[in-house]
Amino acid sequence: MSDRQTYAITIAGVQRELPLFEIKPKVRIAILNILGDTELVSAAARALAEKLRDKPIEVLVTAEAKSIPLVHALSLELDLPYVILRKSYKPYMGEALRSETLSITTGAPQTLYLDEKDRALLKGKRVALVDDVISTGSTLQGMRLLMHSAGAEVIAEAAILTEGDRAQWLDIIALGHLPIWVED
After folding, report:
1. Which of 30, 82, 110, 146 has a CA that sits 20 to 30 A from residue 103's CA?
2. Residue 53 has pLDDT above 90, yes or no
3. Pick from 70, 143, 72: nearest CA to 103
């Protein structure tokens, strides 16, 4: 067992100890990894669904990979289809749209791809962008650009948690907020 420091948080009534990881010198973040955490995913999806239920959403959209179980559970709660923006291109994706992002967890540029088949589903639709944690907003911006290119209207943006103070995140529907730890 590691003696890594953790950050205690309660999300939709579920308590977790999130491990702290250094992402660059003297900067640490708490890592929320919902993959395989059925209890937390289910509780978060129910809570987010209640916050989104009054919005005229037609399709849910997320970027792979950690938020896939969340958007799936949310789609069941709201009875809506969902689209996954991929991080690598595959030939079967046809004439995919693409957008560049910069993830805080990898520190490297990433590309999001919208599969050709999903473009038809999104055209003219009102969508909600969904993520596990929104920190810098780069992935969110990449998703927004792809939705614009696909002819979809973003009417809601939701996450389990927001993080840091780079932006105010006032328009994000979230269940909680994480600080960023910066050492002097």
Report:
1. 82
2. yes
3. 143
Spell out the SS3 assignment of 110-179: EEEEECHHHHHHHCCCEEEEEEEEECCCHHHHHHHHHHHHHCCEEEEEEEEEEECCCCCCCCEEEEEEEC
- With H, G, I as helix, E, B as strand and everything else as coil, classify residue 180: strand
Give the domain CATH number at 88.
3.40.50.2020
Residue 161 main-chain phi, psi, to 5 deg: -135, 150
Q: Is 32 strand, coil or helix?
A: coil
- Asked whether residue 55 is domain-assigned, the answer is yes
Contact 172, 165 (CB under 8 A): no
Number of domains in the chain: 1
The answer to whether residue 73 is domain-embedded is yes
Contact 159, 174 (CB under 8 A): yes
82 lies in some domain:
yes
Handedness of CA 36, 182, 110, 138 (dihedral sign): positive
Res 1 pLDDT > 70:
no
How far apart, in whole angstroms, are the C-alpha atoms of residue 102 and residue 104? 7
| Spatial distance between the Cα atoms of 93 and 111, rounded to a whole number of angstroms | 14
* pTM summary value: 0.91
Q: What value does the mean pLDDT take over residues 150-162? A: 96
Question: Is residue 97 one of the residues assigned to a domain?
Answer: yes
